[in-house]
Each structure stands twice: as structure tokens, then as C-alpha cells.
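Translate sequence into C-alpha cells.
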Amino acid sequence: MAAGETLLYIDAIMPSDATDATFNPTRTPVFSADEVERYARHIVLSEIGGPGQQKLKKASMLVVGAGGLGAPALLYLAAAGVGRLVVMDDDVVSLSNLQRQVLHTTDGIGEPKTTSAARAIHALNPHVEVVGLNERITPDNALERVGAVDVVVDGSDNFATRYLVADACALAGKPLVTAALGRFDATVTTLRPFETGPDGEPNPTYRCLFPEPPPPGTVPTCAEAGILGALAGVAGSLVALEAIRAVVPFGEGLVGRLLMIDARAMRFETLTYGWDPDNPLTGKSPTIRDLSHHRRAPVEG
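Result follows.
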């Protein structure tokens, strides 16, 4: 805190109509005057308010991949005031990234994406703690990395990683926001399979939606097929919105719903999906109880 900076208390910025049962009116300073002004447009929202902003400040999130999806998501999560962002990526910034990965700059070409991300986040919001992990997520470290945070965002660009992250989050009981990009299309959904839905059945897993990954080589990579850069910003922003919702619930999220974006037709559609009793993770006869099956094949690049 800068010298002479005033501290405000959570009860001083709680909306008059807030009824958050977790609110504790102890006079523990949580926001500086700078933070109150920075987050003013959140604080006046009755669905978020002072207590919700406090939850965001206390929250930690793991973002897997600081690329097309992770880059815009990280910017909006930092701007929202998420207290701790763990960025996991073993790649370096390249010139071809800059067409869509808005977190990085020309000056950062050649440096680790985690370093570039930390610099950009600190410049945007110095109140956010950034932890850069210059490594891949693997079957050996996934549960540890996922278990250390409150929410996970998967911005990876391959199926092997998506299934690994989804399985790890389901086993660890952590909310996951996962998305995928195509040339002119994108999808976003939120997974909370460790909870029960309104119908009394378990919430669906990633494997309820996509039981098996496509055969290797059947889906072209971004480098092979291309991608509309602005589409990554749209999908990444929606990912950030869902991650914020996982900390401060409001409205109806994407649990059990797949949001599909068609940029060519400028159409947004939602597909509802449910729990599959035959899924191998949380079904009636589960066969996946750890991540050992992911070691049979290396994670795709």
C-alpha cells in the first residue's frame, strides 16, 4: 500500500440490499481506496457488491495456456480483481501469436509466455498476484496444480490436454471452464461434475459431452487451418465471465450447457447435455479413478 493511502472496510462498501450469508462485518481492511475506485462498477452491481468483490480478491484460479483463449481470459480476470492467477504454459511468444493472443506484445517475442503474461497482468492490475509455471500440465502434476486453486480455466489447444484437465478437475472437485476454438467457431462450457443438478442427478462431465477424443490427425491444428483472431477474444471473454460466475454466482451459467459460437453466421446457440450413467468417470460403474490412463500416451503439442 502506498504511503498515506486510505483503507476502506467491507461494511463500508456493502450494498444496502445485500444479504450475503457469508458476510462478516468485522472491520478487517480488505480494499484500498484505489481498489474501491478500480472495482466501482462491480461494487454497485447488487449481484456482486462488496462481498462479491471480496470473494474475487480471495479467489485463486489456474489458467492452462496463455494463448488464444487464455490471453483475453487472463486480462479480464485480472481486471475483475481475481486475487491470484496461476498461469501454466511452457511455450514462448512468437510473432504469429500476436494476431489473437492480446496479452502479449511485439517486445515480448521470444520470451516465455508466463513472463509476458505476468508483466501484462501487473501493468493492468498490480493488486493481482501472478504465479507463472513454465511447464506443461501432465498426469504427474495435474492433481497438484488443480488442487491448489479454486477455479480452473482450460485454454489449451489439443484434446489430450482437455481430457486430462477435465478428469483432474472432476477427481479434485474443482470447477472447470473449458473452451475450444475452430476457424470461425468456438465452444464454451462449465463443468461441476462433483455436484448434483436440480434434477437430482450428478452434473455432467466432459466425457458425458464428448465420450472420446477424435482420432489423432483428424482435426487440423490452428497453424494448419487458421483462426479468426477476434473470435478468440470473444470466446476468451466468455470464459472469464464463467470463471467469475464460479466465484460469485449470478444468473444461469453453462453447467450442462454448451455455448456454440458461429462467427460466419454471427449466431450463438446453446446445446443442453446431461449426465451419462455410462461415463467412465462418474457413471454407475466408473473405471477412471486416477490419471494413470493418461500416461499411456504423451500429451499432444
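Note: The two ends are 42 Å apart (CA to CA).
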